[in-house]
Design goal:
The complex is a heterodimer of chains A (307) and B (317). With 307 residues, chain A is an alpha+beta fold. Chain A contains seven helices and eleven strands. Chain B has 317 residues and is an all-alpha fold. The chains are: A alpha+beta (307), B mainly alpha (317). At the A-B interface, helix 1, helix 2, helix 3 and strand 7 of A face helix 1, helix 2, helix 3, helix 4 and helix 6 of B.
Chain lengths: 307, 317
């Protein structure tokens, strides 16, 4: 049959490049490989690469246990890049982002729930005097409002009574003078699915939560669902790529992730200074739990917490 | 996306050899493939993540040759190439070929052409790819990637692969000619109806040439023949090694196309280089000549601007 015409006559090892190849690609690749062999001591996938590959391919081909959760044929699959809000100096050239796959029939609220941002976990308040009471309310529970901005329409999250319309300020601002923005509207996020939207690929849109934490959202690809994709509806929105952020370690032990940050601390060598929970208590409080020295302490959530 | 080094050269070499073979049979393509052992293009101890990316880029490059404006033979070659690359890739599960929504009607048309012209092996290859679920149906042809490119790489594909773009033919197609004939007949009938003699239109109403549709068809055919002859001459010139004959033929070719342009340029230069000198009262505003040889202002009159390439200095009194 036709297939046998192409496949190799002798079984060759795919790792070895044939010696007398006439292909330019292989010649170049061979040189690069030889260079790699000279310079790299251990040639093995580092854990970040393994993690990235796992993320990309862990859901391929999955089928649900419950047949009602099966994604149907003709469903659209969108690939979104959601950028981190951090503005470090080193991120000037390429901002770190996570890539999420969503189905066309999913609601915007499902995407909103799946976006994990470190600002959601922040705990407000100074807790130097009562360190044991710290983790009470995280910002995610306190400030539930959020909105998406697509093509001139703000989609506000109105599922809970505490949610406010964050986009109202912007709409009022644009209507106060003739600023050149067309009609900006505000609707509810939970009423819309991705199939209802008209979108541009590659155009930056906005997701805003916590009042001022803004993420840029870019749609990179829209395609039909394929037999080899993950067909379990419960797994969507599916995270396929994440940027690896280094976590800040405790200043004292350099082992555990920092959970506290102090300012104006007479006991600490720098301002601000990061501590893990154990080292923090050991340094700043005596055996009875009395506060030693003057300082301000805030609970700290590291951006690398989602690694 | 940075491209795979050397891949474009290899693909073009293979497709060029296929074009020279002057056939669309799959056996011929398979021979060429085996000669070059093309399946080894994925070899080289590449780890899984990198392999996925590489295969995606390879398929994307090969897929570009599959669409118009490439010549029919190149497109069939690209189809075979896609089939070969898809089957011999080492990724598990296999990377798919991206097909954009706007290209799908053209591809189906291509498939039907293949069946109509009885190239059953090519049609079978296409059908196999579809049955193997090798396609991703996407909105856009290229997957977006966000790295800042230092310079935007322009993919220069070989001119010879492209079908000579025959703009005249795309404008005056058979459908258009048919319609013109219909309208012309209708027009004649209307003229007959309103004139005194019902079988013939009035002499006063004959404003156009009656045979103009046929003349138009003849002219377009002539143009197409001329273009094909020119292409053949051009290709022959590239192959011959003799310097003297090459020079002659090349000058012949060049002058054929640009003869008119050169003549026009000469006339323009002569007429516009005689600059009228401004009278004494306006000495501070002498006329400056702007040369339109860059071709940008072709057809427009040279403007009296400060920028000038060549200006004969008017003698100041």
């Amino acid at each position: 049959s036709i297939d046998t015409l192409i496949s190799s006559d002798k079984e060759k090892d795919p790792d070895v490049i044939p010696e007398d190849s006439s292909l330019l690609t292989l010649r170049i690749r061979k040189k690069a490989l030889e260079r790699r062999e000279e310079t790299i001591i251990v040639d093995r996938a580092c854990r970040q690469e393994t993690l990235a590959y796992e993320m990309e391919s862990h859901a391929i081909g999955k089928r649900p246990d419950n047949p009602t959760d099966l994604v149907e044929e003709g469903e659209l699959l969108l690939t979104l890049n959601i950028f981190y809000p951090v503005i470090f100096q080193k991120h000037k050239d390429h901002k770190p982002y996570q890539t999420v796959l969503v189905l066309g029939s999913q609601k915007l609220t499902e995407l909103r729930d799946s976006i994990s941002c470190v600002s959601d976990l922040q705990i407000g308040g100074e807790f130097s005097n009562q360190p044991d009471q710290a983790p009470e309310h995280i910002s995610k529970d306190l400030y539930k409002s959020a909105f998406f901005y697509f093509e001139g329409i703000f989609y506000n999250d109105k599922r809970y009574p505490e949610c406010r319309d964050l986009s109202r300020t912007i709409i009022e601002w644009s209507e106060s003078h003739d600023r050149g923005y067309g009609n900006l509207q505000s609707v509810k996020m939970e009423d819309y699915t991705f199939n209802d939207l008209s979108l541009k690929i590659g155009f930056p849109y906005l997701f805003c939560h916590q009042g001022n934490c803004e993420h840029i959202v870019i749609i990179t690809d829209i395609r039909l669902i394929h037999h080899d994709d993950c067909l379990d509806r419960n797994l969507y929105p599916l995270l396929v790529k994440k940027h690896w952020l280094c976590t800040r370690k405790c200043f004292v032990c350099k082992m555990y992730t920092a959970r506290w940050v102090t300012n104006n601390d007479s006991l600490a060598p720098e301002d601000p200074c990061f501590f893990c929970d154990t080292c923090f208590r050991m340094l700043h409080y005596d055996a009875e739990g009395n506060k030693l020295g003057e300082f301000l302490a805030y609970p700290y959530v590291d951006p690398g917490i989602f690694n | 996306m940075s491209s795979v080094p050397g891949l474009q050269a290899d693909c073009e070499e293979l497709l060029g050899a296929f074009q020279d073979a002057d056939t669309v049979r799959f056996e011929r393509f398979a021979e060429l493939w085996r000669e070059r052992r093309f399946h080894a293009i994925f070899y080289g101890r590449i780890r899984a993540l990198e392999r996925n990316k590489l295969t995606k880029k390879t398929l994307e490059l090969a897929q570009q040759y599959f669409l118009p404006p490439y010549a029919f033979q190149i497109r069939v070659g690209a189809l075979y190439l896609l089939y070969g690359l898809y089957s011999t890739q080492l990724c598990q599960p296999k990377q798919k070929i991206r097909v954009a929504l706007k290209d799908w009607p053209e591809i189906t048309k291509f498939h039907r052409d293949l069946i109509d012209s009885q190239h059953y092996d090519a049609a079978y290859v296409f059908r196999t790819l579809r049955l193997a679920r090798a396609f991703h149906f996407t909105a856009m042809p290229k997957l977006l990637n966000y790295r800042t490119k230092k310079k935007i790489q322009e993919n220069e594909f070989k001119e010879e692969f492209k079908d000579p773009s025959n703009r005249v033919n795309t404008l005056i197609t058979n459908d258009v000619l048919e319609e013109l004939i219909n309208i012309h007949d209708h027009y004649q009938k209307m003229k007959c109806v309103i004139s005194a003699d019902k079988s013939q239109p009035d002499k006063a109403l004959s404003l156009i040439k009656d045979e103009f549709v046929i003349t138009l068809k003849d002219i377009t055919l002539e143009h197409q023949e001329w273009q094909q002859n020119r292409m053949k001459l051009f290709l022959n010139v590239k192959d011959t090694d003799e310097i003297s004959s090459k020079k002659e033929e090349r000058t012949l070719l060049e002058s054929e196309g640009s003869e008119r342009a050169n003549a026009l340029a000469r006339i323009k230069y002569r007429s516009y280089s005689a600059v009228v000198e401004a009278p004494k009262s306006r000495r501070h505003r002498q006329v400056k000549l702007e040369s339109s040889e860059s071709g940008l202002n072709y057809g427009k009159s040279p403007s009296r601007s400060k920028r000038n390439d060549r200006r004969p200095q008017p003698a100041r009194r």
